Amino acid sequence: MVRRNKRAVILVSGGLDSCVAGTIAKCEGYEIYALTIDYGQRHAKEIEAAANVAKALRAKEHKTVQVDLSALGGSALTDPDIEVPTDREAGEMEGEIPVTYVPARNTVFLSIALGYAETIEAQAVFIGANAVDYSGYPDCRPEYIEKFDELAALATKQGVEGKPTKVHAPLIEWTKGRIVQEGLNLKAPIKFTWSCYLGGDKQCGRCDSCRLRLKGFQEAGVEDPVPYE
Amino acid sequence: MVRRNKRAVILVSGGLDSCVAGTIAKCEGYEIYALTIDYGQRHAKEIEAAANVAKALRAKEHKTVQVDLSALGGSALTDPDIEVPTDREAGEMEGEIPVTYVPARNTVFLSIALGYAETIEAQAVFIGANAVDYSGYPDCRPEYIEKFDELAALATKQGVEGKPTKVHAPLIEWTKGRIVQEGLNLKAPIKFTWSCYLGGDKQCGRCDSCRLRLKGFQEAGVEDPVPYE
Predict the structure, then answer these.
(1) Cβ–Cβ of A157/B138 closer than 8 Å?
(2) Is the ipTM beyond the 0.85 threshold?
(3) What pLDDT is attached to residue A5?
(4) Cβ contacts of residue A228 below 8 Å, gap of 6+?
(5) Best of A107, A127, A150 to disrupt the B interface by mutation (most B CBs within 10 Å)?
(6) B114 and which of A48, A97, A104, B106 could share a cystine (Cβ 3.0–4.6 Å)?
(7) Is A155's CB within 8 Å of B143's CB?
(8) Does B34 touch chain A (CB under 8 A)?
(9) What is the pLDDT of residues A130-161, one digit of tens each?
(10) Chain A contact set for B151 (CB, 8 A)
């Protein structure tokens, strides 16, 4: 009998969180199938980082699926008419849904990941969703992830056959500091990641995403290996 | 006070079922926002039909979003290495998941529709999913649609604010005959639809999709306005 390794689809964005989520899957013994969604972001920097992270995780495959969410508009990350905010006060980052929110993004990402998982008969999908620092994003909350997991059990052939693909969001309740710390402990390939919303040569250090990342490294008491302007 | 019309996103595939679902939404007084997902089908015929149906429904907008599900493989509809079956016996169409099944298709479609609904603040998403003749497709069952509706309530800004977008699948329990009959009663623009899985000048009449469609017209006792080979 051929014993097949357990397989996981990892949503690899190129950012810190998905890099750590993928590393956790790797450490749990999953064979890695990396999936990057190219959804009309403003720059290609993240896609490049995703390819490097997938390679560092020794992914069996790395697929990039294009879905043109910019056709729907409504977010600073895909709509050139909405400005990406920089230099906001820390307090302004909390409690509201920011303009960088992409409508139904995680639902779209998880649904494509589920399709991939079904095709390769993967037991798991890993996503780096995190509720702590993104409290304004409805699709980053634990109750959302749990509901998607219930949906996955109904949505696919494997689900119908009693072997549903399980959705894992291991970082969901972690602070950014803990994400950095656990990532370092597990030797996550953080140096290949990219978090900046802008598309410069170095990370800007001023957009919400850079600020969150920097806060994480500060909390962990270590220096970010990726350079800033 | 400006009173805004209620809005619905309709997943318009170009086929019969979504045409009837959209007509029902129209008759219920919704302003129509048509959405077509171009997911790497083998031919452009359906996309063209979708545009004509959207126009006939007097859609306020018609968006086409590309998502390259063919990158994932695993279906005869997107993978050129898998043959589309024709001339199967009626019995063979039941009880199994056919090779024309696209992994997680309705989950991907509904998630993009949800993103569109969030952007335009639509109260509803309509999908022509049908459980009766597609009993083999896990994502065409009523329990699946109900679960996606629960997910929608958690996934979006509107949901968080207590005004979730509701998912409607009005044809879910109808036979194909009833779909044709109700479509005719409501003057659905059926003549613009296209169901054939192949990409000929006329519908082939032999693939599973054509056969189901023909069965519907036969049950309804009327002739299909769209020509066959």
Answers:
(1) yes
(2) yes
(3) 84
(4) A202, A203, A204, A205, A210, A214
(5) A107
(6) A104
(7) no
(8) no
(9) 988 765 789 999 999 999 999 999 999 888 89
(10) 107, 144, 147-148, 151
Cα–Cα distances in angstroms (integers) from residue A208 to residues A12, A86, B34, B189, B223, in the given order: 20, 7, 34, 48, 60
Q: What is the pLDDT of residues A153-191, one digit of tens each?
A: 999 988 889 999 999 999 999 999 999 999 999 999 999
Reported as a pLDDT band with limits 50, 70 and 90, residue B83 is low
Residues B170-194: tens digit of each pLDDT? 999 999 999 999 999 999 999 999 9
Residue type for A224, please?
D
Separation between Cα atoms, residue A130 and residue A97, nearest integer Å: 14
Q: Where are the domains of chain B?
A: 7-220
**Fold topology of B7-220:** Rossmann fold (3.40.50)
Question: Residue type at A89?
Answer: E
- Chain centre to alpha carbon of residue B66: 16
Two structure tokens written together for B195: 């169901």
B66:A65 CB<8 A: no
